[in-house]
Amino acid sequence: MIGEEILSIIAERYGANAANTAYYSKIDEWESWWKGYNRSFHEFTENGAGGRLIRRELYRMNMAKKICEDWASLLLNDRTSVAVSDEEGGKFVAQIFGETDFFGNANRLIEKSFALGSGAVILRITGVEDEDGVIRPGEGGGVSFEYVDASHIIPLSVQNGKITEAAFVSEGKWRGEDYIYLELHCLEEDGYVIVNEFYVRENGKLVKSDVCPGQCTGVIHTMSTVPLFAIMTPNIQNNIDSSVGLGVSVFADAVDCLKGVDLAFNNFCRDIKLGGKKVFINQTLVNRDEYGNVFTPDDVAQQLFVTIGDSDFADHPMITEHNPELRTEENADAVQCQLNYLSFRCGLGTHHYTFGDVGGRVRLTATQYMGERQDMRQNASKHQKNLATFLKGVVKALLWCGAEVYSLPIDKNAVISVTFDDSYWNDTDSQRARDLSELEAGVITVEEYRAKWIGGDING
Known about the structure:
460 residues; extended
């Protein structure tokens, strides 16, 4: 979570409402579920022997992370492509994406964005700012990406639900000391101004420093209305605080379902743990050595015993065993039901996680399974709209950098298109054959076909 000291700095500059401390507490809660351990829920105590309290932890499936992983894989994978109408611009963007492993990093960012509600990519410019803070093209210029989640984003201005100005907070360590890097992107009359500040801790307080290892210092005037950051959020209406500008976790309204899954799974695991065979032996069969150590017949492989008296072995057996009921089918059914509720509430449909035949149910046919995935398909299409806007924002910022920082003959206003992988629902080979037929019939142009299937792809 962003420290209160940084939030106080932002509040002093931009007003008390600029940093919503309560909302970051919610982000902290979502992160605990993504990490798989929410202390207030997963930790409990039991009464042990003599009334001694024993600390226990619930067995857990960590489904919050799995949900976000699946959404990231579904939305941004190796078949997602970005095309730029300007050839030189497309080559430049493809080069930068390849050098920085953008798609790999972006996939991980999508996972965190769906977990914490928001994520951002920041384009950082190095080696080009002049003494007056204005960007000057030169051979030493370069760009890099920084990926941050919602816990490091402070919206400064929000218009129609879109963050137009923001502060980004990064932590690090330099020469054994912790530092905080604060980067503010503010839109002025002449374009975006980037303010870079570096803080270190002295005598327990944050103190602004002029030394900023590996980062730009001071103020940079981009002279452009193109933001050098892009925000990604799940396409879900924020029902907590819509004015904050940040999104909500994909499982924000499914925390009780996450609890249900872990409770069912915990019961399953505890039944297995407590379900081992229990053997009770009459104490007349137990021997002790000269030091008082106890030996059971199995310890010495004894098979012959002599008993004294007229005991009835039928009523009072010398050895009794207890085999607890594992309740495997009931537990598996409970876990499966909770998983169905969870996947439904997170937009993946009711049977996204199905483990074999549970409770006597028959496996779904292919046609039935495709029908079950319609909810997920509709939600994926909805999320793809936000993802397309996010990717176009990154590419647009890169095109601007290519022209202004690298002095390349790039059209900064080139058309950007994003194509997503629909093979999970559609037969892409058939779709491609159909498009080829439409190309031959003159329904679509060669450029349209190439942009969709062949040329212009920017894939890491």
